[in-house]
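Example (one chain per record):
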Amino acid sequence: MRIGNMSVTIKIQHVRESEVFYPGEEVAGLVEIRGLTIPDSTINVRLSGRTTTEMRRDQYSRLGDTQTFFQIAQVLHQGKLKVTGDEVQEYTFKFTIPLQTEPSWGVSHIKPYKKRADVFAQTPHPVPFSVWLSGSFVSPWMAEVVYEIYAEAKGRRLLRYQQGIITVVPSPAHNDYIVSQAQESQQNSNKSFTHVAFFSRAQTTSIEKRASMKTWLGDKVSADKPKAVFYLTVRTATVVGPGHSIPIQITLQYDADTSTVPSMPDVHLLEVKYKIKAVTDTVHRCNSILVPTTHNTDTYTVFKRHLRFANMTLVNGATTDIGYVDTENGGMHYIPLDNIVTPPFITYNISRQYFIEITASFKCGNNKVSSAVFKWEHVGILYNEGFKAQNTALGDKDDDRTMQGALRTAGAITIGALSILAAFGGG
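Predicted structure:
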């Protein structure tokens, strides 16, 4: 804050060019005093971390909530202060960003939302990262995590201050932990990504009928109809990061023992839709006891790509890598994650999680198009400090490049299994 030649200025000693800090790091700097004379002065500086939410209730009112998960302060000077003219007095300070909320040496003001203990934190947890989020056109909301430094020089009749914000991001060690957790989870848990199958049947008449799976199973299938049974297995990464490629693999397994058709029909992959969806939960409170605390959930797509294929036949037992063909340089490439996506986190009043949704559309023989939907929850997002987004549309861009072929590798790991039952007319 500067009035004339009187000012209080905060200067931070940054340890890296990106001017970001990691949890557990030291924040050092100085408070610069210029042109102030205060007989009984106190110069303070403090660092605090807080999460804030806000939601518009109607045209005239808003609901909000603020949780200060730590606050540490230092007294830099007490007594007479006399800095005249162009003189400058400097006071140094050092703070340590905690690894966990509510450190023993930091004051906190926490009020957990106990009604949804399954969504929001109830006890001390890793400090969240700096972020600002918003959404919902119908009921606009915002949520932010802020790390603020505040300095003041005050006396009985005078107050000068300055406040600023530092950026706290995930450390490389945090990224390593996310990857190791994902690897351990895949090794030690059974994959249960089997989804409800979409069935297709042969066109025995010239009239197409649309029927639900329940109706089809009850009325359209009989023992004398030939059928083909096969399984689609989809594999993808459950930890992704901006600037990285996203591997997608599809494996077809034909069940010859259960099938009653003379031979396996051709199965053509028509398109693959890949989406990363964010689920943001927020708490909004009101000072009035007449208005209850509100819990809001908003789900939306933060990244999507749509790949269409001109002639893609899935081969029994083979694993097909899904991507796009570079017509200029040649070769098949995985989909790149070229958007900045905030890593997931959980606090007392904000929760941000992600899931992946892959839809594979295919055609078996002469049947109509069927679709299979796969879903992976609790997806990890890595932080890429040096990444600069080329596409800022945040998922509004479809990839219409046609892939004419695909690379095939052996030994797919079953991540999601989908049972496809196709009935064919006689012949």
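Caption: The longest helix spans residues 172-188.
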